[in-house]
């Protein structure tokens, strides 16, 4: 599935329109509280400007209602942040395809960067509007997709814009290239044993992923609150645990399909309230008493899962094993993260909570790849096709 990357095209004296994921968190003072997404785009950005290209960056931020006056969703803070990281001024257009954007695109010189205002301030972005896409496409000679977090979407900037740039180079940035390498190429030809660890709250979010991975993995380990839906499917007692009763039949089907491949917790760490100071006990899986809720896999499960991970050659992890933000119910997630870090496997961490857990626990540098997109990485693990990637130039 290898695609041409930004380094494969000559950008000198040309204008590159790059879709990035600058959907950064802002505080009440509209200051960026975590600039990781901006920093992760730097290699692709520098590849263009260091080689004498003119760069236009476009992104969404949050979920505005389409009102351009809603300043809490403005991308202006990202222009300031990127300028500081690059050590040069970064221009900002107060609209996406309006007069200010057109004037600032026309004024761009080689090696300079312009950020357009939030794409979602224009209703055409979510609708995949061809007219809106055509105006964006007319700005540039080259299209580059470096926004993995939105690769599973069909927004105008992801699909209609590259479609409108027929005959012009359409490439991926380094971030998307790396995601494709790990989330499709490695999983398509894994070294074995291939182990998947799936956690999180809802079975419904992961049904297709579990189903797909049962077909290609040697073991699929289940943790998090969705384990209680599986426990209920086996006739167990789950006390006050979070559960999806309408998904019990599906859980039964997955248990039948999985056989020995599907590994479920053998014990549960539970508490009588959702806080660190609650009364706690470890019980066998499916034996959670009334008044208690499961908040983490138990120590025996953590040990079994860690041993399984240590012998793996390829590991995919998506979703924490318990309430990792709260001691002592972070123990199961910690144990699994430690086992992945200690193994010599190719390890791929799905975005969202798994990525946050690995960062928080300090293991990010000890795994092969931490995905930047929760929804997009899940969609890839489901085996979904991405229109936004398929239409780009083959390597």
Automatic annotation (TrEMBL):
What are the record keywords, sorted?
A: ATP-binding, Cytoplasm, Glycolysis, Kinase, Nucleotide-binding, Transferase
Superkingdom to which the source organism belongs: Bacteria
User: Could you tell me which InterPro entries the record lists for this protein?
Assistant: Phosphoglycerate_kinase, Phosphoglycerate_kinase_CS, Phosphoglycerate_kinase_N, Phosphoglycerate_kinase_sf
What SUPFAM superfamilies does the database record attribute to this sequence?
Phosphoglycerate kinase
Q: Where does substrate bind?
A: 21-23, 37, 60-63, 120, 153
Q: Per the UniProt entry, what is one GO biological process?
A: gluconeogenesis
UniProt subcellular location: Cytoplasm
Enzyme class name:
transferase
> Per the record's keyword annotation, is DNA-binding included, yes or no?
no
GO CC, alphabetical: cytosol
EC code: 2.7.2.3
List of residues binding ATP: 206, 294, 325, 351-354
Q: Name one Pfam family in it.
A: PGK
The reaction(s) catalysed by this protein are: (2R)-3-phosphoglycerate + ATP = (2R)-3-phospho-glyceroyl phosphate + ADP
Mention one GO molecular function.
Answer: ADP binding
Pathway annotation? Carbohydrate degradation; glycolysis; pyruvate from D-glyceraldehyde 3-phosphate: step 2/5
Primary location recorded for the protein, binned into one broad class: cytoplasm
Entry binding sites for (2R)-3-phosphoglycerate: 37, 120, 153
Family from the record: Belongs to the phosphoglycerate kinase family.
* Description of how the protein assembles with itself and partners: Monomer.
| Protein name per the record | Phosphoglycerate kinase
Q: What is the lineage of its organism?
A: Bacteria, Pseudomonadati, Planctomycetota, Planctomycetia, Planctomycetales
Tell me the gene name. Answer: pgk
């Amino acid at each position: 599935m290898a695609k041409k990357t930004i380094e494969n095209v000559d950008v000198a004296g040309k204008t590159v329109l790059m879709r990035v994921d600058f959907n950064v968190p802002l505080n009440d003072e509209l200051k960026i509280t975590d600039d990781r997404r901006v920093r992760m785009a730097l290699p692709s950005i520098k590849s263009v400007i260091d080689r004498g290209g003119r760069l236009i960056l476009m992104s969404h931020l949050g979920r505005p209602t389409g009102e351009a006056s809603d300043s809490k969703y403005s991308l202006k803070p990202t222009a300031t942040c990127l300028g500081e990281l690059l050590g040069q001024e970064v221009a900002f257009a107060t609209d996406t395809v309006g007069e200010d954007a057109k004037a600032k695109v026309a004024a761009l010189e080689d090696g300079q960067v312009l950020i357009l205002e939030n794409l979602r301030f224009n209703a055409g972005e979510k609708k995949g509007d061809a007219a809106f896409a055509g105006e964006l496409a007319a700005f540039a000679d080259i299209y580059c997709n470096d926004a993995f977090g939105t690769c599973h979407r069909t927004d105008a900037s992801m699909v209609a814009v590259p479609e409108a740039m027929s005959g012009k180079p359409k490439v991926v940035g380094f971030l998307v290239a790396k995601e494709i390498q790990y989330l499709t190429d490695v999983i398509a030809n894994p070294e074995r044993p291939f182990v998947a660890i799936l956690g999180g709250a809802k079975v419904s979010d992961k049904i297709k992923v579990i189903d797909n991975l049962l077909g290609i993995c040697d073991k699929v380990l289940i943790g998090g609150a969705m384990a209680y839906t599986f426990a209920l499917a086996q006739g167990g007692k789950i006390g006050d645990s979070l559960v999806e009763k309408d998904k019990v039949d599906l859980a039964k089907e997955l248990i039948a399909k999985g056989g020995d491949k599907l590994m479920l917790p053998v014990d549960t760490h539970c508490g009588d309230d959702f806080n660190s100071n609650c009364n706690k006990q470890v019980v066998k899986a499916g034996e959670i008493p009334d008044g208690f809720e499961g908040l983490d896999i138990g120590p025996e499960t953590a040990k079994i899962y860690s041993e399984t991970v240590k012998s793996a050659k390829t590991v995919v992890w998506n979703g924490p094993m318990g309430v990792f933000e709260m001691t002592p119910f972070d123990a199961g997630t910690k144990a699994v993260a430690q086992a992945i870090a200690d193994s010599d496997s190719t390890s791929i961490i799905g975005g969202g909570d798994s990525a946050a857990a690995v960062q928080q626990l300090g293991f990010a540098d000890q795994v092969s790849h931490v995905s930047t997109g929760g929804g997009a990485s899940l969609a890839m693990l489901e085996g979904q096709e991405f229109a936004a990637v398929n239409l780009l130039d083959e390597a």
